Amino acid sequence: MRFYKIKALLKLGLQDLLKNANVLIYIILPIGFAFLYSSMDTMPKDFCFALCVLLSLAMVPVALMGTVIAEEKEKNTLRTLMLNDVKASEILIAKALICLIFVVINNILIYYICGLSLTNFLTYQLIGLFTGLAIIFFGAVVGLLAKNQMSAGLLSMPFMLLLMAPLFISMLESKVLTKLSSLLPTDAMMSLFTAISATKYTFKSVGIPIIVIASWFIISYILFNIVYKKVGLDN
User: Fold this and answer.
1) What is the pLDDT of residues 16-54, one digit of tens each?
2) Which of 194, 27, 200 is nearest to 98 (CA)?
3) Which domain holds residue 106?
4) Number of domains comprising the chain
5) Dihedral sign of CA atoms 68, 158, 167, 133 in order
6) Would you say the pTM of this structure is higher than 0.85?
């Protein structure tokens, strides 16, 4: 693995991304919701942050990662790069780093927009980043399976809805659905935020959510490897 190539790919990828309006919407939308929800006096600051970060993590690691890979495939630039001694792993790492950069930027901006104190800033950011890492391989799977940007958008939708499920399930007040929702990484992330804001540190409130997020990281990584071996990056 050659880090100078990853650095070059990262720089090029960022330049291309900032020119793509379709991709930027995934980044801007959660920030827009943060401004909207923070203006509501009835919305608790911690919940505002957790809600907007959930939206960000449902969009950026999945839809953004899938779209940027599909865009390269659509333009046939991936094959050109690979023919010019660029490894598939270097391309994927560069794309993943781009997505993680925007995950971090979004989480920081949302934190300040929602008006939280700096007390739990680093802890909240690490949880958001950890959860983003657990999800990002799903975005890579979408990019590998998609033939173009349009199909990437369609393929990412089920993943996005699944990750957003805790928002809708909390309104239904169903015990069965709530238990199923607790198995999602985004639900586990929100549980960690709640535990920290309430300073309630138990195995149930902290340990189990961490195990859930770590399990999703392993599951998504395994799924990515299976799909990558079957599809490849240049197909």
Assistant:
1) 777 777 778 888 999 999 999 888 878 888 889 999 999
2) 27
3) 3-231
4) 1
5) negative
6) yes
